Amino acid sequence: MIEQLVVVGGGVMGRGIAYTGAVSGFHVKLVDKYEQVLQSARQEIEELFAGAVQRNKLTLEEAASAKERLSYHSDLEGSVQAADLVIEAVTEKLDLKKQIFEMLDRHAPAHGLLVSNTSTLSPTEIGSFTRRPDKVMAMHFFNPAYKMKLIELVRGLETSDETVRLIQLVAGRMNKETVTINEFPGFVTSRMSALVGNEAFYMLMEGVGTPEEIDKAIKLGLNYPMGPLELADLVGLDARLNNLRYLHQTLGEKYRPCPLLVKYVQAGRLGRKTGRGVYEYGKKE
């Protein structure tokens, strides 16, 4: 039975997952080594609780109970010692994930499941950083994690059926739908999203249309809830570029990053988190 959940990484995805877990009845520890990130996460999560109460999604009592189940920590080693499930939600850099999963393997209890919120990287390779690859897989949430209904579950080569079953139960308790797939670079959703988003940057570079026109065409013509350039700004242009570079390396030429995307990242235009990406957002969020 999974009750104690630890989320590693207090960024946009980590704080959304932590909030979702607490609302769903899990005892959640949100861990980040930077105190300012934890403060920002706490403030945003408090706003999410307030908004949920205002919209009658939660009662005052439910919100108060969920808040009591959620705590904030900077000590990773100590935080995972009683964890039933650890969800890693840090930047898509394999070296960083390697460091984290090696540490998780040393300090999490033997029964603890270790999953990554990666959207492209190999859960098989991530599992190889541990002595428990049968208890490792990808649990790919979508942004914002508390709203999006899907979690893409990705088995590594050695992921056990029992691990998949338990993670499916966790997702169900979070009121999410799941697809469970076998590992291949980019999984299902990231391969498609990366192609569409990269092509949108090529169209922007070629002068096919303004960002607003391209996004409007995709939203209204193809029934997407958000335009691909808006989405890139939301997830971060640096994250999108990292994903494309990995997919280009593993799947070939059709994923070569658009030069305009590379230029934006080099200029520090990373999207909403820096206040400027394809669009302008005023001061840094």
UniProtKB/TrEMBL annotation:
GO BP: any one term: fatty acid metabolic process
Domain of life: Bacteria
Residues at which NAD(+) binds: 9-14, 32, 92, 97, 119, 143, 273
Record site: Important for catalytic activity: 140
Domain 3-hydroxyacyl-CoA dehydrogenase NAD binding, first and last residues per copy: 5-183
MF-aspect GO terms: NAD+ binding; oxidoreductase activity, acting on the CH-OH group of donors, NAD or NADP as acceptor
Pathway stated in the Swiss-Prot or TrEMBL entry: Lipid metabolism; butanoate metabolism
Entry keyword Phosphoprotein: no
InterPro entries: 3-OHacyl-CoA_DH, 3-OHacyl-CoA_DH_NAD-bd, 3HC_DH_C, 6-PGluconate_DH-like_C_sf, 6PGD_dom2, NAD(P)-bd_dom_sf
PANTHER family, A to Z: 3-HYDROXYACYL-COA DEHYDROGENASE FAMILY PROTEIN, 3-HYDROXYBUTYRYL-COA DEHYDROGENASE
Protein family membership: Belongs to the 3-hydroxyacyl-CoA dehydrogenase family.
Name recorded for this polypeptide: 3-hydroxybutyryl-CoA dehydrogenase
Organism encoding this protein: Paenibacillus naphthalenovorans
